[in-house]
């Protein structure tokens, strides 16, 4: 089937867009598969970093994940935020004292 609109041949453009969309769908499928297969390792590292009191913003920067995901592992409620801030301040103070 050839695509034409008002006598203009648009078949080449249609085929080009269809090929691009097929490529995008396949790339998305592969990316999603890779995301799912690497998720356990990524989540284990996030849990480890959280247990080591690494700030969510630092975890997000280190691993290239969204801040919201890092906060989910570190806890994003008000108490968790206060605790992280205090731990960070204590860590910074200790570094200054030992330096």
- Unreliable stretches covering 5 or more consecutive residues: none
| Residue-averaged pLDDT | 85
Structural Rg: 24 Å
Number of strands: 2
CA distance, first residue to last residue: 75 Å
Share of residues in helices:
over 70%
What structural class should be given to the helix and strand makeup? mainly alpha
Strand order in the largest sheet: 1-2
Supply the number of helical segments.
Answer: 4
Shape: elongated
Percent strand equals: under 5%
* Helix-strand topology string: EEHHHH
For the report, how would you describe the main beta sheet? 2 strands, antiparallel
Quick structural overview:
With 99 residues, this protein is mainly α. 79% of the residues lie in helices and 4% in strands. Strands 1-2 form a two-stranded antiparallel ribbon.
Structural features, described:
The protein is mostly helical and 99 residues long. The chain is 79% helix and 4% strand. β1 and β2 (8-9) form a beta hairpin. It starts with a strand and ends with a helix.
